[in-house]
Every structure is written in C-alpha cells, then in structure tokens.
Design a protein that fits this description.
alpha/beta; FAD/NAD(P)-binding domain; 2 domains; seven-stranded mixed β-sheet; five-stranded parallel β-sheet; 23% helix; elongated; binds flavin-adenine dinucleotide; binds NADP nicotinamide-adenine-dinucleotide phosphate
Length: 312
Amino acid sequence: MLDCAIIGGGPAGLAAGLYATRGGLKNVTLFEMGMPGGQITQSSEIENYPGFFDHEKTGMDFMDTWQKQCFHFGLKHEMQKVERVSKTGEHFTVTLENGEGVESKTVIVCTGSTPKKAGIKGEDTYFGKGVSTCATCDGFFYKDKPVTVLGGGDTALEEALYLSNICSDVYVVHRRDTFRAAPSTVERVERKENIHLITDTVIEEVLGDAMGVTGVKLKNKKGEITQMDNPGLFVFVGHNVNNAVLKDEEGHFICEMSEHGQVIVDLSMRTSVPGLFAAGDIRIEAPKQVVSAAGDGSVAALQVISYIQEQA
Ligand code: FAD
Ligand code: NAP
C-alpha cells in the first residue's frame, strides 16, 4: 500500500514528490508515462521562474535537477501511463495501462495538459511531416528556411522568437489583431526583423506532397485567399486538460469538475473526494505557470501528510 500515488511528473508532480518524501512519507510513487519534467521541457526558454535567469538554458535543462532532487529524498518513479483512479472504501486504486492495480492511501493528480490541434484541413495528414507542436524538438529541421507559426498566445510568440534564431523567416498567423501573449513578449517579437505578423487571418489548409508540408493556404478577414510556401508549420493554439484518469468506467468523473473539465479544488488542493488532491494546470483557475504548479504540488503534499496523520 502506497502512502501517496502522484500521477504526472511535471512541475506540480515533482514538487509534490519532493514535499511528500522530505516530509517523511516512505512509500511515494510518481506515475509518469514519459520522462519527468512536463510541458516546460518543450520550451526553448524559461525567464519567469524566480531566481532563475539564464537565457541559455532550455526548459529541459531547467527541469533536469528537479527529478534528481526528488529521487535523492526517496521518490520512486514508475514510467507507466495511468488509466484511472478509483476509490473503494478508505483507499484508492490506481489502475495502470498494463492492467495492474496499485493501492494507495492518497492520490495527487498532476496530469497537466497537452497541445490542442487547430482543426485545419491537412493538419492531421501532415502531423510529424512538417506540422509540429514543438519548436525545440523540430525547429532545427528548418534551419535557414521559412516557417509558419499559428497562434497568438505566449507559447506561439515565445516559440516564434526561438525559431527566428534558426529559421530564415518566421510568419506568425493569428486570427485576431491583438495578441493574448504578455505585452513584453509581443514587443520582443515586434523588434525581430525576421518575424512577420499576419493578423486577422486564418490558415484554411495545410498544403503538402509525398515529402511533407509545402505551404499553407491563408484567408484574411476580407475573404482574400493567399498562399505561403513554407515547409514547416508550428501549431500553438492552447492545450487540453488531461483529466481522463478521473473518469470511471462509465465515463463519469469521480470528483467535481468545472464546465471546462478542470478539477475543482479548494485552497488546500483538496478535491470533493477525501484523500484525492489535484495540482497544477489541471485545477480550476490554474495560472498555468511553472511556479504556481510547483506551489500547488507542495500544498497538496503537505495536505496529504496531514490527511494520513488524521486517518491513523
Ligand atoms: P505538465 O507540465 O503538463 O505535466 C503533466 C505530466 O503528466 C506530463 O509529464 C505528462 O506526461 C503526465 N501525464 C499526463 N497524463 C498521464 C497519465 N495518464 N499517466 C501518467 N502520466 C501522465 N510556464 C512558465 O511559468 N514559464 C514559461 O516560460 C513557460 N513556457 C512554456 C512554454 C511552452 C512551450 C509550454 C507548452 C508551456 C509553458 N509554460 C510556462 C507553462 C508550464 O509549462 C505549465 O504551466 C506547467 O508545466 C504545468 O505543470 P503541471 O505539472 O501542472 O503539468
Ligand atoms: P493560449 O493562451 O490559450 O493561446 C492560444 C492562442 O491560439 C490564442 O491566441 C488563440 O486565439 C489561438 N487559437 C486557439 N484556437 C485556434 C484555432 N483553432 N485556430 C487558430 N488560432 C487559434 O495558449 P498558450 O499560448 O499555449 O498558453 C497556455 C497557457 O500557458 C497560458 O495561460 C499562457 O499564459 C501560459 N504560458 C505562459 C508562458 C510564460 O509565462 N512565459 C509561456 C507559454 C505559455 P485567440 O487569442 O483569438 O483566442
């Protein structure tokens, strides 16, 4: 029987693992289907984590020491996808993709979110063949070539900045004429000579051939259709909440959720089910920042320790 099962190894899960193990819990396992680190490992930079100010380091570099610190204090990592969490009586069962059921006194769900698709014609056909959601992973394939970026949020503009150092030109296509991204990021983008902002415009179709993407067909608000012959398309149009582990076999959520599919928690990261906690991007009103996800994880772990003491 585990003291605590942590599902998801991003900033929230790793911070929870650190606080739970350092706080004295002996049997704490992190179930993370990939390498721990979370979404931020896809980022080319992180400049707003307090005390960390190094433009040379990527999100991957930044997260590397988090897991080492956790393992030092006794956190165990199982590289497994979790199918579902259920509660029978006092305890939880964490059902893994391989069918195994792991019993635990408490669970902290930190499964975060994943990139959304834009729903454009040709996007699925050419996904992985010129369409990407990760500039750090795929940007280098377009060295000295022009690329298209879709989206107007922080991710789109930050990744456009990253791509502008590799690619000849970066064309950012955004459906409105104002950006959702932080004003300081918009200013940095505007100062870059090889980033071109194409606003009030949507991508109608991803064009390609047997080799992959050859370009995109654009339509602006006036209805004018144009074409850009760029071999890479980076789609940054937001994220879906990874809440599937909280659905029972009939597809019903086991705890209270918001209309947007986020877990409803209180200030202690408690869900509506005693012993079940949620932290990071998966919770309601998440600021979707590494620092806040880590803060959530620490709060949840401290609550887990109190909960186990109260139950004993
Ligand atoms: P995530 O980081 O999403 O981690 C969730 C983890 O759960 C993942 O590793 C996933 O593999 C795992 N998981 C999911 N489902 C399962 C399952 N069923 N079983 C097992 N494991 C599972 N924030 C900043 O503060 N500063 C930035 O500069 C910044 N830049 C960003 C750049 C990009 C490109 C992106 C995408 C995000 C950026 N963010 C930034 C946001 C930040 O990364 C997130 O807010 C943060 O990572 C959320 O942490 P989390 O632990 O809640 O979830
Ligand atoms: P986001 O803020 O939701 O922005 C998504 C962008 O894509 C919006 O500009 C949206 O347009 C556009 N869009 C959505 N669906 C589209 C579609 N089908 N076709 C075309 N365009 C579409 O997502 P994000 O940029 O990934 O950021 C997610 C969260 O992480 C945010 O809270 C963000 O602040 C945070 N984050 C923070 C940092 C940082 O602090 N440095 C870095 C990255 C991410 P509209 O604007 O018209 O809706």
